[in-house]
Write a structure and sequence with these properties.
The radius of gyration is 25 Å and the shape is globular. By secondary structure, it is an alpha/beta fold. It folds into four domains: about 180 residues, no CATH class; about 80 residues; about 70 residues, no CATH class; about 180 residues, Pectate Lyase C-like. Helix 1 packs antiparallel against helix 6, helix 7 packs antiparallel against helix 8 and helix 8 crosses helix 9. The C terminus is likely disordered. The strands form four sheets. The chain has a 16-stranded parallel beta sheet that branches. An eight-stranded mixed beta sheet has the order 12-15-18-21-24-27-30-31, with no helix packed on it. The protein has a five-stranded antiparallel beta sheet with strand order 6-5-4-3-7. The two termini are about 45 Å apart. The chain contains twelve helices and 31 strands.
């Protein structure tokens, strides 16, 4: 098993945490011994009993890898972070622990954020056990931290990769040896490449989306009083619950199709995850309440506007929706969503994560990320995507857009904020025209064998504007890189690469040698225009040419 955290940096030192791993057969045997025959209703109770009998109940140190949700609930902070804590008490009633905050590590905090976080030092909060990573070195050497680390790691693995969000909605769901073996083997198949990477990415995206829907179901049930008095539940609550359960079942069905080799092959040739009533080629127009005269004006302009969009088929039907999410929930792969002026909140992409078009009609059309759609605002796993005339604004803890495969085209877009701008993976392709990317940690990150063409595009006020791996192919035409605090263009090199002479070559000539095409690229006010970084060490190696 691969733990998600093995160490954190503090100034010039490194704090190591326990590294936990199992062989697949040992993993199956251990989980079976804990959960054999346990139903979903008694799952948490069984785990609490098992952990209580074996874990060190208090007195140990750990790194709390806080998620956005737990950070918000515990400290009122709307972002993820790492913090050193002292475990004061492991709960006997839930899978939680009371911890005392000792030290924050996140170097990305602003000065005001640091001051705010420092005010929480020595504060006691309750956090999920699954977010704790015990330190390898403890002040109290009597503690059995190896067993404790294994227990916490096993719990984290189960809820991350074995438990399914739809388990709780099943009439009967028992974690017997057959179920556990199937799910553990599926996890290892996704890790060792037995399942194609793009399929694995879609599967884990389904799990993330299903978890969010599960939380929404819980919230609606609590708000509607479903548990206490069914007779008084309003029609709106019932309708919302039915819709959420329907979405959950669609995600479950799609996941099971991908998990089975035969149905996975068939689904590659015939998409099976389509909402009822959906029809490929429909246009969804998102427009909130407007004046009658504005509505008439929009209606008169819409036909001509749509005629100029190649993704809109002749004779396409048009549907109106009050919100972006309503439009997406009713969409199929490859549909077109037209957004009127205003800010539109995105919770999930639904079927449009497989492909589709988003277009802004008018001025100041903003597509805004939210906590609900996780750490990636636009997580794209299909073949063709188009974004025109939009402002894309992820939250501060989100990457704006990740393309796992296929192609994406952005025209006349502004991508602003977030911890990352655009990331290309595998052999994906991107065409960026007339766009601006700013205020991201990394504006554009091209990995693997991806390809990208950037034309008339500006990347500014980022840490690193453009990061290029060794086998990527990048074309730059009439682009500018301005006021980037670390690098304008950073080339990731392997350890054997010799870049010692690059610092003597002018930037423009160097780019023409290293990029597939480069024409009229401008630099202004960057800390370093062209840099080279050894991929393994992540340390600057050469060519720190400046203005």
């Amino acid at each position: 098993m691969d733990e998600t955290l093995t160490e954190v940096s503090r100034d010039n030192s490194v704090i190591e945490v326990y590294k936990v791993s199992w062989l697949p057969e040992d993993h199956i045997a251990e989980l079976t011994s804990i959960l054999e025959g346990v139903s979903v209703d008694s799952l948490e109770e069984k785990y609490i009993e098992y952990i209580e009998q074996n874990i060190e109940p208090a007195g140990w140190e750990a790194i709390w890898k806080a998620s956005i949700h737990s950070a918000q609930d515990s400290l009122g902070v709307g972002r993820a972070f790492n913090v050193l804590v002292y475990v004061a008490n492991v709960s006997r009633e839930s899978l939680m622990a009371d911890v005392v905050i000792k030290e924050f590590f996140d170097s990305s905090f602003t000065e005001s954020e640091k001051a705010d976080m420092e005010s929480h030092i020595d504060k006691e909060v309750s956090v999920p056990l699954t977010q704790l990573y015990p330190l390898a070195e403890q002040e109290n050497h009597v503690l059995d931290m190896e067993t404790t680390a294994e227990l916490v790691g096993q719990l984290r693995f189960f809820y991350s990769y074995i438990w399914r969000p739809w388990d709780a909605l099943e009439d009967q769901c028992n974690y017997d040896n057959y179920t556990l073996t199937q799910r553990i083997n599926l996890y290892y198949d996704t890790k060792n490449g037995a399942i194609p990477s793009h399929v694995s990415a879609e599967m884990w995206q389904i799990i993330r989306k299903a978890k969010e829907i599960g939380k929404q179901i819980q919230t609606v049930e609590l708000a509607s009083g479903v548990e206490s008095d069914v007779k008084d539940v309003s029609e709106n609550f019932v309708r919302e619950l039915i819709q959420l359960h329907k979405q959950m079942n669609q995600l479950k069905d799609r996941f099971e199709i991908l998990a089975d080799p035969v149905t996975r092959y068939l689904s590659a040739h015939e998409p099976l995850m389509k909402p009822e009533g959906g029809a490929k080629g429909k246009v969804k127009v998102v427009m909130d309440c407007v004046k009658v005269e504005d509505m008439l004006l929009i209606s008169s302009r819409l036909p001509e506007f749509l005629q100029n969009i190649p993704q809109v088929p002749e004779g396409a039907q048009v549907q109106g929706f009050p919100t972006l999410q309503h439009a997406i929930d009713a969409s199929c792969k490859d549909d077109v969503v037209v957004l009127m002026s205003g800010t539109h909140k995105l919770q999930n992409l639904g079927n449009m994560s497989q492909g589709g078009t988003f277009i802004g009609m008018g001025e100041d059309v903003v597509l805004m990320g939210s906590i609900e759609n996780g750490d990636v605002m636009l997580d794209l796993i299909g073949k063709e995507f188009y974004f025109y005339n939009l402002t894309l604004r992820p939250t501060q803890d989100q990457v704006g857009l990740i393309l796992h495969q296929g192609s994406v085209q952005l025209k006349n877009c502004l991508l602003e904020g977030g911890k990352g701008g655009i990331v290309l993976l595998g052999d994906s392709q991107a065409e960026i025209t007339g766009c601006t990317i700013k205020l991201c940690k990394c504006g554009f990150d091209a990995r693997g064998k991806s390809q990208a063409k950037l034309s008339q595009t500006n990347i500014l006020s980022c840490s690193s504007a453009l990061t290029v791996e060794e086998y990527t192919q990048i074309k730059l035409e009439l682009c500018s890189f301005s006021v980037n605090s670390k690098h304008a263009i950073c080339f990731m090199q392997n350890q054997d690469a010799d870049t010692s002479n690059f610092s003597t070559i002018p930037d423009q000539e160097l780019l023409k040698c290293l990029l597939k095409e480069c024409e009229d690229v401008k630099f202004d006010g960057n800390a370093v225009n062209v840099a080279f970084v050894i991929a393994d060490s992540q340390s600057d190696n050469s060519a720190d040419s400046q203005d």
